[in-house]
Write a structure and sequence with these properties.
By secondary structure, this protein is an alpha/beta fold. The chain contains 14 helices and ten strands. The chain has a four-stranded parallel sheet with strand order 4-3-5-6. It has a four-stranded mixed sheet with strand order 8-7-9-10. Helix 7 packs antiparallel against helix 8.
Length: about 325
């Protein structure tokens, strides 16, 4: 897969944490111990610890956010922020994500009323951000961390870097504490944990796969590098491991694994140019994959599956995945 596409996927859809990713330094929200690997381990607990309102939090990555009062104006530079705000019954003051248009979020009509930060995901304009007089700006650490000096003194900046669903739950709890929306945070966490625990209980024996890309070159989403993919070993047979930023799988290797259900994320770089699954179908090997032969290739919303990464997005992923895996 071309380096550019991999880098955009990395920025927009995955969290790369050093070199070993979620298998190194990610705290397991159920046990408080470091997780062995994303998506593995004991069955998910449905218990939710109380959340206490606070003006100062330190997240699981060691980042401290201190505010004089609960933030009312929050600018989201990463879809995880939008996801959490919707879970808490709030909306961003401005955003550069399209996830809000999904029907399980705000829907197209309401989402269209949220101002968009110009400059796109990779280069949001600082002046435009500050024009909204935000109390808090939330962005992806490895992409928006460079904005911190320009925002310092004008607003609080919180760099997040989710590498697993446990991280996403942690960020939900932290923002619930800062905004004082503790009951909403607890309820959202409970809903997600219950959904995941049920999906684990009904784990499918089928082999599944998530692929992403913008043309005939594609990548495989792995539990070590992708939050949504981290759920899949819990709900199906998912024999895909990370091969590093520049590594991927060939169609020959995928064919050899007898994939039963295949989820496809078409990533658009500018003007839409067709579905990834249609382009992959031009390869003769594609038609030989069991999922293709049996009509079990599902094009999914990449804004939710690849970029959302919060409990609402992951709930959508679980609902759609478990329905397809039955």
């Amino acid at each position: 897969m071309p380096r550019t596409a991999l880098r955009v996927r990395r920025w927009a859809a995955i969290a790369v944490l050093g070199g070993l990713l979620a298998g190194c330094g990610t705290e397991n929200a159920d046990t408080g111990e470091p997780a062995a690997a994303a998506g593995s381990g004991a069955r998910t607990s449905t218990e939710v610890r109380p959340i206490e309102a606070a003006n100062r939090i330190t997240d699981a990555k060691g980042v401290t956010v201190s505010l004089p009062k609960p933030p009312e104006k929050i600018v989201c530079l990463v879809a995880l922020c939008d996801d959490i705000l919707v879970e808490l019954g709030l909306t961003p003051t401005a955003t550069n994500s399209q996830v809000l248009a999904h029907p399980r979020f705000l829907g197209k009509e309401r989402a269209a009323k949220i101002p968009v930060v110009p400059g796109g995901f990779l280069s949001p304009e600082v002046e435009a951000i500050l024009s909204h007089q935000p109390d808090l700006v939330i962005g992806l650490e490895d992409t928006h961390g460079k904005l911190a000096p320009a925002l310092k003194g004008a607003t609080a900046f919180w760099p997040v870097q989710p590498g697993s669903w446990q991280d996403s739950v942690g960020y939900l709890r932290d923002l619930a504490a800062l905004t004082g929306r503790t009951e909403q945070g607890e309820r959202a966490e409970k809903t997600f944990r219950t959904r995941l625990a049920q999906a684990e209980k009904e784990k499918s024996g089928k082999t599944s796969l998530i692929v992403f890309g913008s043309d005939e070159n594609f990548g495989v989403a792995t539990p070590e590098t992708d939050v949504a993919a981290g759920l899949f070993p819990k709900i199906s047979h998912y024999p895909w491991k990370s091969r590093g930023v520049d590594g991927s799988y060939s169609l020959e290797e995928i064919l050899a694994r007898d994939v039963d259900v295949l989820f496809v994320e078409t990533l658009s770089f500018g003007a839409p140019d067709g579905r990834l699954s249609d382009k992959l179908a031009e390869n003769p090997l594609w038609s030989r994959i069991p999922a293709v032969k049996n009509g079990k290739v599902i094009e999914v919303d990449s804004e939710v599956w690849a970029k959302g990464r919060g409990t609402r997005s992951l709930g959508v992923v679980l609902d759609e995945a478990t329905a397809a895996l039955r």
